Amino acid sequence: MKIRDYLFPRDLDEALAVLAELGDGALPVAGATSLRFFPDSADSTRVAVDITRIGLSGIALEGGVFRIGAATVVSDLRDRADAGWALGGVARRMATRQVRNVSTIGGNVARVFPWADLPVALLALDARMTIASHGAGAREVAADEFFSSQPARLFKGGALLAQVAVRALGNGEGFGYRKETVVSAGFSMMTAAALLRLDGGGAVREARVAAGAALSFPRRLEGAEAALKGRAPGGAAIEAAAEAGTRGLAWQGREGMSDEYARALARAAVADALAEARDGAGRSAT
């Protein structure tokens, strides 16, 4: 990617107007840590539009929902400590402290790379993404739709990811996350996340399970969700759900592992994420 100019809009309205005017020639940037993964060719020249000064940073808890500005850096996600906050453990496993200090939540999800951490977590958490457009206001997109394919399709005409909303975990709810890497700061070989909501009797009222890294694109694991619904999430039930959720998918080995090993790793990572979510839901219900 070649940058021929660098603009600093003063607020969101100005940024949206600039992006709409430049069209495909614009590149919204904040942390810019992913630029090295874009192709460097003659037709990839862009004008960078810096969105770090337009009020899209920060995390606010409003009505039981965490509203996260798209330019919020990952280290802020890691350091948040509110009750019901689920993204701290995800952010803690992302890259290094130096990268977390500049990389943003918006940059991690607006263009999804196979190893990206946050898309898997946000799918499991049923997040909502707010997309702002010049002259058209803002609209909210559910994680299932947002991550149904590459999110770039949603930003045509100068639209911009403005906010990510994640509901605070409540009583009887738990979240689990697993990431497997060769080295601590390495790209993920396998990422799994799970959200469980238990009823008063300890059975699963709702489950959301997602995985990525060893798949071509992050996705929900509906088989695991269906296998757990209405059941007590004991060890055998969790193992059966992990098997059901990972069966039949096109797992892709990375970092030298075979496709079959990737499937086995997926089954273990999903089971671990489910167990963590179950334990968290049990603690919150007491």
Note the main attributes of this structure.
alpha+beta; Uridine Diphospho-n-acetylenolpyruvylglucosamine Reductase, domain 2; 10 helices; globular; single chain; 26% strand; Enolase-like, domain 1; 12 strands; 3 domains
Number of helices: 10
Q: What would you give as the CATH superfamily of the largest domain?
A: CO dehydrogenase flavoprotein, C-terminal domain
Largest sheet: 5 strands, antiparallel
Strand order of the largest sheet: 4-5-8-6-7
General form? globular
Can you tell me the number of structural domains?
3
**Number of E strands:** 12
CATH class of the largest domain: Alpha Beta
Q: Which architecture of the largest domain would the CATH scheme give at its second level?
A: 2-Layer Sandwich
DSSP strand (E) fraction? 25-35%
- Give the class from helix and strand content and strand pairing: alpha+beta
Alpha-carbon distance between the two ends: 52 Å
- Helix coverage percent: 25-40%
Kindly describe this structure.
The chain is an alpha+beta fold. The chain has 3 domains: about 1-50, 2-Layer Sandwich (Uridine Diphospho-n-acetylenolpyruvylglucosamine Reductase, domain 2); about 60-165, Uridine Diphospho-n-acetylenolpyruvylglucosamine Reductase, domain 3 (2-Layer Sandwich); about 175-285, Enolase-like, domain 1, CATH 3.30.390.50. The chain contains 10 helices and 12 strands. The chain has helices at about 10-20, 75-80, 90, 95-100, 105-110, 120-125, 145, 220-230, 235-245, 260-285, and strands at about 1-5, 25-30, 45-50, 60, 65-70, 130-135, 135-140, 160-165, 175-180, 190-200, 205-210, 220. A hairpin with a 6-residue loop joins strand 11 and strand 12 (about 220). The longest helix is centred in the C-terminal third of the chain and has 26 residues, at about 260-285.
